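The protein record passed on below.

***
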Amino acid sequence: MNEFRMPSLGADMEAGTLVEWKVAVGDRVQRGEVVALVETDKGIIDVEIFTEGVIESLCVQPGETLPVGTVLAQLSGAGAEAEAEAEGTPPPEPARPAKRDGAAPAVVHQHPDADTPTATDALGADTHATVGARRRATELGIDVMQLTGTGLDGRVTLADVEVLAGFANGDTVVQLPAEPATDTRDTPAAAMRRAIAAAMTRANRDIPHYALFRDVDLSRALDWLTAHNEGLPPDQRLLPAALLAKACALGLRRVPTLNAYWIEGDLQPVESVHLGWAISLRGGGLVAPALHDADRLPLPELMHRLADLVGRARRGGLRSSELSEATCTVTSLGDRGADGVVGVIYPPQVALIGIGRIAPRPRVVGDAVVPRPQATVSLMGDHRASDGQTGGRLLDIIDDLLQEPERL
């Protein structure tokens, strides 16, 4: 019997809340299949399973908050369907997971701007609101989809529902303009900030950082990008971020010491390059999900996946593997006007690449000083895993690749 446990979705995660099961007892699951939604301080995550088998039991009900490592479900290796087929009898009808005791039933609520009613489950997969807000809204007969939230990225919080509860009139919710709560200690944004603070404090304490910098001439890369994008519709054009990400990924492939984890005192290189990309969230905070196999993606596909990753990070819908499998993270603050980045390595990774804004700066070319579009690329390295010479080699490779963008 195999066990499916609450995964760790980052060094800053200690517990998660099960929002919804995507499977039932008797269902056969495959590797990489999304089986549950789990809410963390960084939002609601699609959690995948990496064991094939048949769900024998669901040990946890939606709404429960559990520490990392808790058994959520049990699976058998041999499927019920296969056993039934061998015996010549049809498989039993899969049982649906039971509702948590005391859970409110689905509520049908008529909206003033809708022709037909909709059903809202108290523990549904709606990323528009937190679990507590959805449960309380169902108890009060309020549809959270009609509310404007004050939480992280505009999500409806429990406080929003309580404030508006007094204005419910029959089947119609009269909504007041949302105002930020004066006490923000229990908002999702505050919870995320605390999680980030804990992880970064631990990283600064435990990791002996070193920092390297390289000013990279991007004139050839930008000229190539302009020629490539000519005549293409906007949704098919490449941005400089795609070239920078691909150059970083190819560089990490050639310097595997920096594409690695530091776990229990040992360096563990990773064969695949899963490039973490730091994404700022509109309500505050950030996440750094992984672009899987970024070194092997053609530039148009990498651009598409990067845009998709940013969109899902900000509206909800990241997968657990995207939050737990990054092998090295890139943080690009150029669009915020920062000339350079001195970041903090996200454990168990052993390096962080920073990219500053692209801007014209003086550069010596031959005997002349000319303006060239440049960006400062930085590397924060873990001195337990590598030395400055290794980090400098990675910056050299990234620079060389960006001088020949057609190779990307």
User: Anything to note?
Assistant: Residues 51 and 203 are 31 Å apart (CA to CA).
